[in-house]
Each structure stands twice: as structure tokens, then as C-alpha cells.
Write a structure and sequence with these properties.
By secondary structure, this protein is α+β, with helices and mostly antiparallel strands. The protein has one domain: HIT family, subunit A (2-Layer Sandwich). The chain contains 5 helices and 8 strands; from the N terminus they run αββααβββαβββα. The strands form 2 sheets. Strands 3-4-5-7-6-8 form a 6-stranded antiparallel sheet. It is globular. The C terminus is likely disordered.
């Protein structure tokens, strides 16, 4: 009888865990039910925003661009940006960006530079975002200098979709190089520097202009 009771308790606990499975980042935790409700309530608004936005200057195969209000069910970085008590350690704050510790560091030092405006990934950038990209790159270098870390020993760049783990644009600041694990994840073609992304944006704009002129 005792064995049966223990078995029943294990089954109930297993079902309860499956029902309330959670997604967490630091102290930010949401149940699977909350995630589904959040996606359902916000998803339509985000799709409408994406459809309304002009596609002209986007990189090839651009996905939706979300200018997203705070919603913990949708974006862990937005949670950090809008939380009054973020658990992620914030190293630097400006009106445009924050720099935080990566929660799963892949090197001795691993930080993320995150824009306050929600942009899904690099394929959603336009030429209007050029000042933001330049600012992110500049802030990353300034931060390393202020921390007395050698900029030349660090990789600074973005993961190309689908290799970005969070659907909110973030610039990796990781190093020194000889301490990086999974080095292939921080090299082209998976990893793109700020300069590479800027060059691609300009190239897309020029090619589309030439194409229209020929017609």
C-alpha cells in the first residue's frame, strides 16, 4: 500500500510539473499557461505593427520587427529592461542601451549590449538604425576600456538568425578569445560584427536603388 501511495504521489507531482513548466531568466519566471495567454493577447498587436511597417530598407529575408511594450511573457530582455528589480547585473545604462552580464557565459568575460527598443534581430534592422548600431559598438568598446579589458582580445558581434537565442537584438561582448568555449559560434558566418551588419545594410540599400533605376 505504501508503494502504491508513493507511486501516486510521484505521478501527481510529474503531472503538476508538466502543467506548470516554466521559462526563466534570472528571477523572471512565467508558467507555460501564462506564456500562451501572453502570446495570444499580444501576438495580434505585434503582427499588425509588423505588417504596417515599410519593408524597403530591410536586409534580405527580414522577419517581423516588433516595437514591443513590456510583456514578460514574450521577451526576457524586455523583462530586465522594465523590471524595477532586475536580477541580471547591469554594468552600464544609457537612454538607448544597457550592458548586462550574460547569464550563461561562454568565456571568462561575457556581456550583452541590449537596445531599449525591441528589435527582433539583425535582419529587422534598417538604415534608420545605423546610429543605434554605431552607438552599441562604441558603448561596448568604452565599457571594455573602463573595465581595463583589452578590446583587441574580445569578439563583439551579433548572432545571425536562427542562431540568436533570444528574440531581442543583443550584441555579444565576449573574451578573451582563448577562453571562449564553442568558438565556432562566435565566428562568421554565424557571428557578424557591427561593421559587417552596417556594410550589409548599405549594400541592400544601394542594390535596391540600382534595381529601381534600371526599371
Amino acid at each position: 500500500m505504501m508503494m502504491t501511495g508513493q507511486k501516486d504521489r510521484r505521478e501527481l507531482e510529474s503531472k503538476r510539473e508538466a502543467k506548470t513548466s516554466t521559462f526563466s531568466y534570472g528571477s523572471q519566471t512565467r508558467s507555460s499557461e501564462e506564456l500562451q495567454m501572453g502570446e495570444k493577447s499580444e501576438g495580434q498587436k505585434l503582427r499588425e505593427t509588423a505588417l504596417a511597417k515599410d519593408q524597403t530598407d530591410r536586409l534580405p529575408m527580414a522577419d517581423e520587427m516588433f516595437f514591443m511594450p513590456f510583456s514578460g511573457a514574450l521577451c526576457v530582455f524586455c523583462d530586465i529592461l522594465h523590471s524595477s528589480k532586475p536580477k541580471a547585473r547591469i554594468r552600464l545604462e544609457t537612454p538607448e542601451i544597457i550592458i548586462i552580464d550574460d547569464h550563461r557565459p561562454r568565456a571568462e568575460f561575457h556581456f550583452q549590449c541590449i537596445p531599449r527598443r525591441h528589435i527582433k534581430n539583425i535582419t529587422c534592422l534598417t538604415l534608420e538604425d545605423r546610429p543605434l548600431l554605431l552607438d552599441m559598438g562604441s558603448r561596448a568598446r568604452e565599457f571594455l576600456d573602463s573595465a581595463r579589458l583589452e578590446v583587441s582580445e574580445f569578439e563583439v558581434g551579433f548572432h545571425r538568425p536562427p542562431y540568436n537565442s533570444v528574440r531581442h537584438l543583443h550584441l555579444h561582448i565576449i573574451g578573451p578569445r582563448d577562453t571562449i568555449t564553442e568558438k565556432y559560434m562566435f565566428r562568421e558566418p554565424i557571428f557578424a560584427s557591427v561593421e559587417s551588419v552596417l556594410t550589409e545594410l548599405l549594400s541592400v540599400k544601394e542594390n535596391r536603388f540600382i534595381s529601381r533605376r534600371k526599371k
